[in-house]
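ARCHIVE CARD
Drawer: 12
Card no.: 0347
Subject: one protein chain, sequence and derived structure
Cross-reference: see card 0346
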Amino acid sequence: MKPLTLLALILPGAYVVLEWTLALSGFPHDMGFNPVQWTHHFLGETALRILLVSLAITPLRDITGWAPIILIRRRIGLAAFFYALAHLLAYVWLDLDWSMPKLWEDILQRTYITLGMGAVAGLIPLAITSTNGMIRRMGRQAWQRLHYLVYPIAILAVAHHFFAEKGIQMGPLIHGAILAFLLAWRLVKFIRLRIAAAQPA
């Protein structure tokens, strides 16, 4: 299962590399008349979708009873971080020509950039601590508390996508609905566990 998951996670990045190779070589490609914008959108939406898939792993386990699916959750979460980082680097490189003053100006003045930077910044500590060694050093409980940050990070990411689009678009609404369902599932599960813990043995 892990090799297949890794292959599936690599494919979107390989597709971007292939499209740019075709474009730079003068061959037909699927990036349209604005390859830079296409790259931003593709990497950003890929990162968000993979992040939502990572959040769906626990509900899928609960519904299906298939416990081994949890083994691929961290790998999927790390892929979401790497695609989000690629999305950011593509923006800083292709749009801003590595200008940190321009980046800072955009963070302060553009709402969707502020939200996106907040999401990427939040993913950094989660990526750094996504190893068995870090779990042992931090302790399982502290590690879990830190990784609950993935939920507000996902909210920031969905909001970033919503404000980055011009007008009301179906994509951000679908992503928002999926996230709302996953958050509701987590909330209902938490309430049920608290009620069960409060009942006398």
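Annotation on reverse: The CA atoms of residues 60 and 66 lie 8 Å apart. The two ends are 39 Å apart (CA to CA).
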